[in-house]
Amino acid sequence: SENTLCPSPGAMSQAVAKEIPQEQGEGGSRRSSWGLLVTAGVGGTLVALYAVATPFVTPALRKVCLPFVPATAAQIQNVLKMLENRSGSLVDIGSGDGRIVIAAAKKGFQAVGYELNPWLVWYSRYRAWRDGVHQNTKFYISDLWKVSFSHYTNVVVFGVPQMMPQLEKKLEDELECNARIIACRFPFPCWIPDHTAGEGIDTVWAYDLKRSRGCETKSLEITPETES
Q1: Where does the record place a coiled coil (predicted)?
Q2: Which of 33, 64, 117, 170 could bond to 55 as cystine, CB 3.0-4.6 Å?
Q3: 216: exposed, middle or buried (Cβ count in 10 Å: 0-12, 13-18, 19+)
């Protein structure tokens, strides 16, 4: 009958009263879930940005700042010009994204780069592999002040004025007399360059340490024996 199929008004009101809190509870639960997802997403993004940015920002907080500024095509060519007729090992101090090291390796040098930023080191290794010179290149994550460059005969430096006096002394103490140091963008304060190439920001200065240090290669003098 109709009485058994249709609920009474009182029953309907009770049913509606039960449904409303349930729907509100489900909506609140959904909003809470979305809020947690948004919070986690924002937090993860901030952590990722911190991980990426820290290696770039940290050098700027050091006493001597050595920021990453990519070498121009003209600078690379000028560096290679200063390496003509040179042999031996090569090191790039503050190698950045590895373009100087890779260019030198393509010219036959066993080239090494030291860079404090791990992201740039990993990218340099990838570029060396991509360009087919990974067997002639090595890249290290290291602070230049904690490395000895004594076994290198060719040194490339992309420095800033604040660090050049201290680096000049370090290289003079560590390198052999046959070493050549190539400075890009900023010259060394005391040494007199033996060669220069380029102009403006693309200028490079080459210093032969045997002259800058005053070293002279002396031939052995053979004194003939006197007959008694």
Answers
A1: none
A2: 117
A3: exposed
Amino acid identity at 72: T
Asked if residue 111 belongs to a domain, the reply is yes
Tell me the whole-structure pTM to 2 decimals.
0.67
**How far is it, in rounded angstroms, from Cα 192 to Cα 195?**
9
Among candidates 69, 72, 104, 67, which has minimal Cα distance to 202? 72
CATH number at 134 reads 3.40.50.150
Are 20 and 12 in contact by the 8 Å Cβ rule? The answer is no
Question: How many domains, in total, are found in the chain?
Answer: 1
Q: Is 79 helix (H, G, I), strand (E, B) or coil?
A: helix
| pLDDT (tens digit per residue) in 124-145 | 999 999 999 999 999 999 998 9
DSSP element (H, E) containing 46: helix 9-57
The H or E element spanning position 114 is strand 111-115
Residue from 189, 199, 204 nearest 212 by CA? 189
Is 53 within 8 Å of 79 (Cβ atoms)? no
